[in-house]
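re: ur question from earlier - yeah i can do the single chain one, its not a big deal. heres the input i used so u can compare w yours
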Amino acid sequence: MDDNLTGPFDRRMRRLRRDRAAGRFAAQDFLVAAAARSIVERLGEINRRFDTALDLGCHIGIFGDTARNLEPEKIGHLLQCDQSPRMVEQVPTAQRLVADEEALPFAPASFDLIVSALSLHMVNDLPGTLLQIRQCLKPDGLFICAMFGGETLTELRQAFARAEIELEGGMSPRIAPFTDMRDAGGLLQRAGFAMPVTDYETLTVTYPSIFRLMQELRDMGESNSLSHRHRHFSRRQTLLRAAEIYHEQFGAPENRIRASFDIIYLTGWAPAPDQPKPLRPGSARMRLADALGTRETVLPGDKSGQ
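and the output i got, formated as tokens:
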């Protein structure tokens, strides 16, 4: 698929930023490493083997390294792919591939497991990407994804918004729009996943300054890739004012600042005939009141017990 500017993200710029960050990413991989550990913990609680697995948006192969902590033979053949050729070059295995998350080059029902650690938050068509992922899974295949969402980098967003309004009379798009956790489960259902589950955690990281935070975001390949971003450098005065506001509003001990990263975890299964199915409403064989040992109070007009 050709890179384009038809969505909120400039996918060509996204690839270039990841290419440029590839050589420095290992020094700033702590967020992806935390997400990979959480995914591995979830896999460890599932009593089954996954013969074929895909690590989608693999960065430099962190999930593959972390998955070695799983019991032997938990994951058979693991293929790791990323949109960035230079990221893929850093993956320490021959089972690697350059591939765009928005146009998966895999046949239907190719994998028993697909994971993704902090890469899908910058696809232009997340519902379409989830649909492709579901189609690439074998029946009863598992998908586990960690993605930035919610109020990620809200402090940086607020500091720049206030500084630009004060000094430039308006705001420019700087921070990507992130998926709300309440919408994530609906996206899984829309893509056809069975038994969808969503949860999230917030990681708070402190930095000495807004400039160090922005540098580390660049080293992660996570700097501004919005299609409608300003194409010129920020004014020095605006940057300095944003730094002042950040320290005033979001200061941390020892003259540092804090930055929040909300990580949403999505889990879903490709449908299969033998999967558990929810009971039809009204088909329960035991009353909740009986299970709790209490009396049931019937409200006026309630016909559920008839």
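The longest strand covers residues 194-207. not sure if urs matches, ping me
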